[in-house]
């Protein structure tokens, strides 16, 4: 049960840090943290990131986040009191884009 609380807290703080503190131009302003899964030992953390835009924008954003990982971890450590600050793996989440594409396809079928 404790882990869902930690996941939620890390997700919230991560979203704040990405939205407000990352100055890397590669990171799109239309980036959101879809979900976060912190390992029970708090050593690692997977963060699913959704970026509005084409594949290049997504790749750039993930690359920008990866290069800012040290900074992001320090910020997380300052904001959340955990024994360990997990290493973060950023994963591109395609679900929103997939939903938009499906929605478009359905609209096209309905128009015919």
Folded structure, characterized:
The chain has 112 residues and is of the alpha+beta class. The protein has one domain (2-111): K homology (KH) domain (GMP Synthetase, Chain A, domain 3, 2-Layer Sandwich), CATH 3.30.300.20. 54% of the residues lie in helices and 20% in strands. The protein has 4 helices and 3 strands; from the N terminus they run αββααβα. It has helices at residues 2-20, 55-67, 69-79, 95-111; strands at residues 31-38, 44-51, 87-92. The chain has a 3-stranded mixed beta sheet with strand order 1-2-3, with helices on both faces. α1 crosses α3. The longest helix has 19 residues, at 2-20. It is elongated and about 60 Å long. The termini are far apart. The mean pLDDT is 89.
Summarize this entry quickly.
This protein is an alpha+beta fold.
């Amino acid at each position: 049960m404790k882990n869902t609380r930690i996941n939620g807290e890390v997700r919230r703080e991560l979203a704040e840090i990405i939205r407000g503190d990352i100055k890397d131009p590669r990171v799109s302003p239309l980036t959101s943290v879809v979900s976060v899964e912190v390992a029970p030992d708090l050593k690692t953390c997977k963060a699913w990131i959704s970026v509005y835009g084409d594949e290049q924008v997504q790749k750039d954003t993930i690359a920008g986040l990866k290069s800012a990982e040290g900074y992001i971890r320090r910020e997380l450590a300052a904001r959340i009191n955990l024994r360990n600050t997990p290493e973060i793996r950023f994963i591109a989440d395609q679900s929103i884009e997939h939903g938009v594409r499906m929605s478009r396809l359905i609209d096209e079928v309905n128009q015919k």
